[in-house]
Every structure is written in C-alpha cells, then in structure tokens.
C-alpha cells in the first residue's frame, strides 16, 4: 500500500535554504545517523541550486523479461501513473539499484514532472535523452546518462513505499536536501530538531570562517573551546534583532 504524500512545511524550506548538505550530515552524525548521504547522486548540470522537499519514492527491481516491456509503460503500475500522483514541491527519489546502463526517465517524463511542480529528481541510476531532460529545467541528481530505456535493465514495481537509493533506506515523506555535494536524507520524525540544530551549526561555522579570515588558528576555534564558545554566544546575541 502506498503512503499518502505530505507537503513540506514552507518554514522548514525557508530555514534550510542556506544550510548545506555537509552541515546536515554533521548534525545527523551527532544524532547517531551515519548513512544518510545517497551515493551516486550528483547534479546532472552545473549550477543547480539547493532543493528541499519531502521524498516521493519510486522503486525499480531487476528486469524480468515478461514484465519489463514497452507495453508495461501503459500499465496501471507504471512510472507514468506514479508521476501523476506526485504533489507539487516533492522530490522524486528513485531507487534504481545503481543501474547505469538503462535510463529511468527521459525528457517527456521529466517535462511532465516539471509541469506538476516537482522540485527535483534524485536517483542512484541514470536518465536518458540528456539534452531534452536539461531542456525541461527539472533539477536532476543522478549518476549520469544512458541511451537505453529503463526496461532494458529494470522493472518498475511501485511508488510511495520504502526504497533503497544510493545505499540509504528512504521512506516516503522523509526530507531530502540536495546541493552540489549530492543528496542527504533527514528522517521525517527528526525534521524539526535537525532543522534547528543545522541552522545554528551554519551560524557557528559562519562565525568561525570570519575568525579564520581574520587570522585565527584552528585549535580551540574549530571546534570552539569554552573561551571561543563564549565569544561566539556574545556575537550571536548581538546579531539578534532588537524589539
């Protein structure tokens, strides 16, 4: 049974707009979560901006000749049907088992996703019709491109269910953040706590960068010792708007 999509809180998107995936992995590591970076998820085009959204999952399994046929594209269980269930603002996360010789989506499917307001496509597989996909304007993170269609190596079996993507367990409605370093998952139950801690971590690291630019040495600064932690708190307090 598929899971009903949940919209991402606009406030979470606003707060994470300046938070890198590198910072998120650090915050999650402090919470004991090490396996949150989706391997093989690289930006398909240079300059793709950070995207944040709830995961809408799609799952492929190895190709089976009686199921992985061009006729399957018209089946009720198809990538076409899954795209029509995608809500605006979601990030489509496709578990393709790391297969790199069969493109999961091409330009027409990506164009439809873009039209529906999907924020981005993330996969441990590849896409096809590169020029056309880039022309749709849909931000894509994947392992690259291949000419053959998905049915040449994969069978699509469902959407909005737990998947494996890039060696990470992704559940529907987990939070996905993508930037130039790739894709990172934040479990849905931890979104609020991780967001608050990540925003603070970015603020702290911004202050540390300023100290480094001024010539400060790293020992005792990164991470900060008690003296520098107190200096940072005083600086942060001074930055807060006065009522």
Structure description:
The protein is α/β, with parallel strands linked by helices. The protein is built from seven helices and eleven strands. It has helices spanning 10-16, 21-30, 79-84, 107-115, 130-136, 191-213, 226-239, and strands spanning 37-38, 42-43, 51-62, 91-95, 120-123, 140-142, 154-159, 163-165, 168-170, 175-179, 182-186. Strands 1, 2, 3, 4, 5, 6, 7, 10 and 11 form a nine-stranded mixed sheet that branches. The protein is elongated, with a radius of gyration of 20 Å.
Helix and strand layout, with pairings?
Blueprint: H1 10-16, H2 21-30, E1 37-38, E2 42-43, E3 51-62, H3 79-84, E4 91-95, H4 107-115, E5 120-123, H5 130-136, E6 140-142, E7 154-159, E8 163-165, E9 168-170, E10 175-179, E11 182-186, H6 191-213, H7 226-239
Parallel strand pairs: 3-4, 4-5, 5-6
Antiparallel strand pairs: 1-11, 2-6, 3-7, 3-10, 8-9, 10-11
């Amino acid at each position: 049974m598929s899971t009903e999509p949940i919209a991402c809180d606009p406030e979470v998107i606003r707060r994470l707009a300046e938070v890198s995936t590198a910072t998120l992995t650090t915050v999650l590591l402090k919470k004991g979560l090490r396996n949150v970076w989706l391997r093989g998820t690289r930006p398909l085009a240079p300059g793709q901006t950070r995207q944040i959204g709830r995961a809408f999952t799609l799952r492929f399994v190895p190709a089976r000749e009686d199921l992985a046929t061009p006729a399957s594209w018209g089946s009720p269980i198809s990538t076409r049907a899954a795209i029509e269930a995608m809500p605006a603002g979601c990030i489509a996360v496709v578990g393709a088992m790391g297969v790199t010789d069969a493109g999961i989506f091409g330009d027409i499917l990506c164009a439809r996703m873009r039209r529906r307001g999907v924020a981005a496509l993330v996969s441990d597989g590849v896409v096809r019709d590169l020029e056309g996909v880039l022309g749709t304007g849909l931000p894509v993170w994947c392992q690259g491109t291949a000419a053959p269609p998905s049915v040449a190596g994969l069978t699509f079996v469902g959407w909005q269910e737990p998947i494996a993507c890039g060696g990470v367990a992704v559940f529907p409605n987990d939070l996905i953040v993508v930037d130039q370093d790739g894709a990172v998952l934040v479990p849905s139950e931890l979104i609020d706590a991780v967001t608050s801690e990540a925003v603070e971590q970015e603020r702290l690291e911004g202050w540390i960068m300023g100290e480094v630019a001024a010539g400060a040495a790293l020992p005792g600064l990164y991470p900060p010792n008690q003296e520098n932690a107190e200096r940072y708190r005083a600086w942060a307090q001074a930055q807060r708007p006065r009522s």
